Amino acid sequence: MKPKITLKDIANELSVSISTVSKALKNSDEISKDTKDKIKAFAKFYNYRPNNIALSLKNKRTKNIGVIIPDIVHHFFTTVFRGIEKYANEKGYNVIVCISDESIEKEVINMEMLANGSIDGFILSLSAETQLKNEYTHLKELLDQGIPIVLFDRVTSEIECDKVVLNDNEIAREAVEHFISTGSKNIALVTTEKYFNVSESRRYGYLDALKAHNIKIEENLILTLPHDMENDSLITEFFQHNKVDAVLCVNEIFAIQCMSIIQELGFNVPNDISIIGFTDGILSRFSVPRLTTVAQHGELMGERAAKLLIDRMEWVDEVEEPFKTEVINATLIKRGSSIN
Amino acid sequence: MKPKITLKDIANELSVSISTVSKALKNSDEISKDTKDKIKAFAKFYNYRPNNIALSLKNKRTKNIGVIIPDIVHHFFTTVFRGIEKYANEKGYNVIVCISDESIEKEVINMEMLANGSIDGFILSLSAETQLKNEYTHLKELLDQGIPIVLFDRVTSEIECDKVVLNDNEIAREAVEHFISTGSKNIALVTTEKYFNVSESRRYGYLDALKAHNIKIEENLILTLPHDMENDSLITEFFQHNKVDAVLCVNEIFAIQCMSIIQELGFNVPNDISIIGFTDGILSRFSVPRLTTVAQHGELMGERAAKLLIDRMEWVDEVEEPFKTEVINATLIKRGSSIN
DNA sequence: TGTCAACACGAAAACGTTTTCGCAAATAAA
DNA sequence: TTTATTTGCGAAAACGTTTTCGTGTTGACA
């Protein structure tokens, strides 16, 4: 058991002052070569490392980033987190993660907890409940305190800060046009409640594409599934009662569930019904047939978010940078679940 | 922009000393009711919250836990992390995550970074390279410094600390016996390089089961796949050249890959070949047929690891607790990929 | 020999807390 | 009225750094 050594310990052992030790280790030329060598050797031998907490207190910066995500078991958030962690680590930052579990209360508690000095800035994706209640005072207060925030994916226009989003509208439109160009007419959308900004955008993209191609919009071809519930029966009913030859799903799970049920109902994918999902996760890559899907480039998104945040935190110029919204271009990955 | 308020600010505004403010807010009865009320009201109005960093420095504890995992995109680690975060948060701890990317160098760097005061203890699963090189001095040094460590899943007997593991051997044995009891004779194992302790245990479980039932062990029925590489051709070749009626895979990806290739080769799952995998992730739940699999209860594992760590960190008794190894009992979840 | 600069180092403040101890004033007891 | 006790509060140290400023010693130069 050899506990951590401090500047004071070194100073005492070598009968010099703490200031001298500190300067010597920073190679200050205020200190003679002899003394420096002696101190450095001692420090090295005892494996001295400055205490991060003391540094944080002194410098008023922790080199920690707080990340709040609704759920980590979802592939998309996991990859975004990966990107954040990667970029942050390269830049010497650590990442403290809290999971809001789609609850605004947890989001608030976690953010307040971390905001009291533990982190220098936040990266977050809004919880479902936060979006539903449209309640952002916790974010506003933190921004007011001068704590920078970067929102990604689930964002809101109510808050002025840096953001990273997907071109959801355009890519949904592209997906639907892919259906149209391969001959589909009765195109369905399987989506979540509309308080999710991303689902809304994808819905608009879907509608826009139909309009642009003069296809009549049938409201009953839009299936809204409750969030995180058992919904096999809803899906089954939907495909039994509607004539559909293509379906766009706003996430991977919905897509796989649809495919599985469609196949059980005796239809062929993609010949009878084509499917496109969102999120290029393992489900999409290993299903039979493999799923045509929208790659959201989560890792890139995470890196960008981290870069935006760190740039702002380390900003030194006199003029404050205006807030940016970066758009990540999704890619449609064509595989076996659609006709190509 | 209203920056964070400190004890000093309150003291100045109210013309009392910092000590008085501190005591008043802690409801000390050294302070008169009048003064306390005044101070509390002021603090509440300005939303005073003590600075975590200052507290950490004072108390010599950060209430942060460092978690080092080889990879977060893998479902198992994600769920373990989930469990850690959940339990830690309940107990008022935050979680700093670093991803070692299966590299010992990153593992070392990250741990040293965090060990300089940022965290009170570690929870980690060893990187592949660390297990391969059998190099644990970084862990030993941290333990020497009095920093508690809990290892989970990928552990080593070289290090004395608290651990949480799966009963890999027994559950592998149970899986193989399930094959045997349903009539399989030629049982294959698809595994990873043997420096992974978990793969080794599962291999022993496999071998034990065969021995116990007087089934001859055929070394060529054991397929060792390189870590994280494209290995479809190896798998194809394996099933073309060997007569197999059941296969145990040490992870979910291998199991899905095998199932996909087996089906492509024209075999029926489970009638021609049964499959059991490890990790009850979404792949297993959404494949066709659904995969019989070993549920590792990652979330529980994470909770247990966090509990072990926090108990040790908050340990106050005079006698030091001996190190514990908790064993999580895996569960065989029987689904369509095996005969039941 | 006296003056000045350069050199090498130390004292102290600061970051924001908590906590021990001391001390004056107010009250109670003698 | 004197003494003892309580009450209410402040000063200061401590946690581990960094950094500014001050200061004693040395050597060079006039």
UniProtKB/TrEMBL annotation, chains A, B:
- What domain of life? Bacteria
Query: One GO MF term, please?
Result: transcription cis-regulatory region binding
The UniProt record lists the HTH lacI-type domain at: 5-59
Keyword list (alphabetical) reads: DNA-binding, Transcription, Transcription regulation
- Protein's UniProt keywords contain Transcription regulation: yes
Q: Which Pfam families match?
A: LacI, Peripla_BP_3
PROSITE patterns, per the entry: HTH_LACI_2 (PS50932)
The record, for PANTHER family, names: HTH-TYPE TRANSCRIPTIONAL REGULATOR GALS, LACI-RELATED TRANSCRIPTIONAL REPRESSOR
Q: What is this protein called?
A: Transcriptional regulator, LacI family
What is the taxonomic lineage of the source species?
A: Bacteria, Pseudomonadati, Bacteroidota, Flavobacteriia, Flavobacteriales
